């Protein structure tokens, strides 16, 4: 019961820090050697419709919902048209460009405006804080008709 309450409290604190856009001073979780995240689809350079399904891949780690502290696990964040990675040691922002998948989801369908867009994944720990070193995919570019 205490673990559940602690997890809920930490999730609430992380959510509050994200909403307030204030550094939370949370500890950084080390990433295991060889961990990686990648975008399965669409492929880099693809031309897609306004609705596009993005599938997430992960190696060397597992997926767990936000608020669940389990060694070598995290959850996905999809960065849409983001130029710089979120700062280390702070929860990843939650807005139209930083999409959170705290339920442990491994794919999503986006509705994007026509034009060129970039997509990149970053894995966050149970508090939405990036791992150290960052577990981040290469950035891909897609073209929306």
Structure description:
There is one protein chain. The chain is mostly beta strands and 145 residues long. The chain has one domain (2-144): Immunoglobulins (Immunoglobulin-like, Sandwich). Helix content is 13%, strand content 34%. The chain is built from one helix and nine strands, in the order αβββββββββ. It has one helix at residues 2-20, and strands at 36-41, 47-48, 51-59, 62-63, 73-80, 98-100, 107-111, 115-124, 140-144. The strands form two sheets. Strands 2, 4, 5, 6, 8 and 9 form a six-stranded mixed β-sheet that branches. The protein has a three-stranded antiparallel β-sheet with strand order 1-3-7, with no helix packed on it. The longest helix has 19 residues, at 2-20. The radius of gyration is 15 Å and the shape is globular. The model is unreliable at 1-24 (pLDDT under 50).
In short:
This protein has about 140 residues and is mainly β.
Instruction: Give me the Rg, rounded.
Output: 15 Å
Shape by Cα distribution: globular
Question: Please, how many helices?
Answer: 1
Structural class: mainly beta
Average per-residue pLDDT, rounded, comes to: 87
Number of strands: 9
Write the layout of secondary structure elements.
Elements: H1 2-20, E1 36-41, E2 47-48, E3 51-59, E4 62-63, E5 73-80, E6 98-100, E7 107-111, E8 115-124, E9 140-144
Parallel strand pairs: 2-9, 4-5
Antiparallel strand pairs: 1-3, 3-7, 5-6, 5-8, 8-9
């Amino acid at each position: 019961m205490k673990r559940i309450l602690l997890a809920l409290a930490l999730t609430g604190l992380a959510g509050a820090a994200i909403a307030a856009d204030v550094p939370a001073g949370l500890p950084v979780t080390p990433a295991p050697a060889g961990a990686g995240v990648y975008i399965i689809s669409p492929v880099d350079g693809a031309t897609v419709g306004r609705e596009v399904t993005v599938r997430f891949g992960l190696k060397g780690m597992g997926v767990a919902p936000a608020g669940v502290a389990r060694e070598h696990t995290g959850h996905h964040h999809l960065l849409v048209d983001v130029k710089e990675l979120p700062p280390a040691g702070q929860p990843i922002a939650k807005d139209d460009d930083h999409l959170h998948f705290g339920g442990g989801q491994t794919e999503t369908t986006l509705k994007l405006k026509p034009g060129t867009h970039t997509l990149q994944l970053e894995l966050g720990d149970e508090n939405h804080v990036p791992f150290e070193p960052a577990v981040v995919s290469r950035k891909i570019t897609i073209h929306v008709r």
